[in-house]
Amino acid sequence: MTPKSGERSPHRDQIDVERPDALPRADVVICAYTLDRESLLRRAIASASSEPGDGQVIVVVDHNPELLAALAAGPDLGPGVVLCENRFARGLSGARNTGVERADAEIVAFLDDDAQAAPGWLAAIRRAHADPRVVGTGGWVDAEWEAGEAPEWFPEEFLWTVGCSYPGLPESPGAEIRNPIGANMSFSRDDLSAIGGFRSGLGRVGTAPFGCEETEAAIKIRGRTPGGRIVLLRDARVRHFVPKSRATWSYFARRCVAEGRSKALVTEAVGSADGLVSERRYVRVTLPAAVARGAGDALRGDVHGLQRSGAVVAGLSLTVYGYLAGRHERSAAAPGRGESSVGSDESQDPDDATAIGTARRAAPRIAALAAGLIAVLGAAHVWWHSIRGRR
C-alpha cells in the first residue's frame, strides 16, 4: 500500500544500523540497451550481486531482443538476478519504471550498466535509508576512463557530462543534495510509485545524451515528504566506465546542449526555484574557480590549463544555449495567451520571456566564440610544443 504524503515506514524509527538484517531491504535495478556493453553489463551485475541486500538484482533490457537473448543464453547471471524487458516506451525512463514495477523491496537502488559497485556500496545505501527522513541517496561516482585518464583539456568540474561526480558537490558526510547522479542512486519504492515513476520524455533513449529524469523525480519525491532529505553518500562508491568516444570535444558539446534542453523540461514541470537551485551556486562559485585555476596552471607552465579554462566557458555557454533553446521550444508549443499548461506559469511572465528572447539571440554567438577560443587555445598548444621542440 502506498503511504500518504509525508508518511514513512514506522519501523524505520527503531532500526539498529549496526545490524545488517535490521536494515531496509533493497532491490538493485540495472538498465541496458546495447550488446556493445554486454561485458560491462555482466560486470555490473556481478558487482551488485555480491552485495547482501536481501533483494533482487533486476536487469531490464530496453527493447533489444538480441541483448535479451544473449543474456539468457550466456553464462548464468547468478542467483537472485531477474531478467526482464522494458514494457514501457523505449528509453531509460521506461526501463527504470519497469524495474521499479518488478521490485518488491522497500528501497530501489539504481546502477548503470557500465558501472561497477565497490564493496559496501549497497550496505551504505541501506544504512542511509534507515533514517526515516532520508527519501533518496546519491552515491559517489568515480570516472574509469578507457584511455586511462581524462583528456588534458577536460575540466573536472564537467565530469557530470560523463555521468560522474565532480568538484562543487558537498564535502560533509551525508550532506543534503537536490538530486543524485543516475549511475548511482536510490529511492523508496513507494515514493517512486507515488509520483508515477520517472517521466517519459526525459532521460536517454539509446545514445542520445539527454538526462535529468532523476532530477525531476528527486524534486517531486522530496516535495511530497515534509522534511525529506536526499543525501550524498561518499562511501557508496561506483566506478563508471567512460569510453574514448565520450572523451571528445564533440561529445562534450552535445552533452552540454542536451543537459540544457533537459533542464528546460524540468523547470517547466517544477519551476526554476527547485529546478535550478544547484546550478546557481555551481555557476557563481564552482565555475569561476575552475577558470581561475586553469589560468593559474597555465602561468605555472601547463598550457592545457588555458584549454581547461576555455572548455569551462564553452561548456557553460553551450548548456545555457540548450536551456534557452529548450525554453523557447516549450513556449512555442504551449497553448496561446489566456490558456495555461502544467508548469508553464513561469514561461508566461513577460519579463522572463523578454530576457529569454534576448539571451537566446546572443547564446549562439557566445557558443561560437567559446568554440573559437578552444580552437585558438589548441593552436597555441601546438605552437608551444613546436617551439619547445626546436630548443
What tags apply to this protein structure?
391 residues, alpha/beta, Spore Coat Polysaccharide Biosynthesis Protein SpsA, Chain A, eight-stranded mixed beta sheet, 11 helices, 46% helix, globular, disordered N terminus
Strand order of the largest sheet: 3-2-1-4-7-6-8-5
Helix content class: 40-55%
Q: Helix segment count?
A: 11
The average pLDDT score comes to 82
CATH architecture of the largest domain: Alpha-Beta Complex
Q: Any idea what the shape is?
A: globular
CATH class of the largest domain: Alpha Beta
Number of E-type strands: 8
Beta strand %: 5-15%
Termini Cα gap: 75 Å
Largest sheet: 8 strands, mixed
**Gyration radius, to the nearest Å?**
22 Å
Give me the CATH fold name of the largest domain.
Answer: Spore Coat Polysaccharide Biosynthesis Protein SpsA, Chain A
Weakly predicted, low-confidence segments = 1-7, 336-363
Per CATH, the superfamily of the largest domain is Spore Coat Polysaccharide Biosynthesis Protein SpsA, Chain A
Structural class: alpha/beta
- Count of discrete domains: 2
Order of helices and strands: EHEHEHEEHEEHHEHHHHH
